[in-house]
Amino acid sequence: MKRVLITGGPTNEYIDEVMKITNMSTGSLTLSLADRAIKKGDEVTIIVTHSVLKSALFADYGFRDGVPGLKVVPIETTEDMYEALKAEAESGTHYDTVIHASAVGDYKPQFSFRMEDMARELAQVIFAADCLDEQGLEELILDTMTDPVCKVNDDSKISSYEPHLTVKLTLTTKLISNLRKWFPDALLIGCKLLENVPREHLIDVAHKLCLKNDMDYIMANDLAELRNGQLIRYLVNREGYTGIALNGEGSPALLDYAADNWF
Q: Taking the model in full, what pTM does it have?
């Protein structure tokens, strides 16, 4: 028996109490991997968003009624997932395999503003500036836009009648960069999704991601192929492309490969 930790689904980044930025991930890969590992007799922890837990697929697997050997950790935001992963690492539980399959959002809202308020604030700052050259003026404008006075209060729901509401985004925490530190002895598998790129480029990006974050494997796929019903994931390790296109012709099915090699 092994202990397996799998992340899944999208992350949700809130603009205010109601609006959020998310993505189209359903968590289906995570749920199918968890189901296969449980059927093999492994103990499985999944860290997934509430939308996955409420999905029909989650119920179809029977997870909604509780399954022996399955631990569910619900999260919403990238920060939630960060804290959940860290907590599992610090819990004393030894995980043999960690599969980071979640479609973590690259960006989160930092603050919102009305464009007319920003225009007014920039005008005041520019008129007050004294003898700045072009570069100095650009820096002043950027500094103002990066941390303006005119931020909208997003502690509650923002009005539905703002024709020029603008959201300034910032980068989310990169979770994959912490996995080896948190789970030093585990087999680490990550994912990389690009869209409509040459296969060589997809594999090269996945290989660099694998090396940069000290992962054992990266499953790389192309959104354009997914849209065409091709659920192929190219398996990359630290040496490069393994030659295995999971779910592809002449290669094993992803779940079979995972059961034989990761669970």
A: 0.92
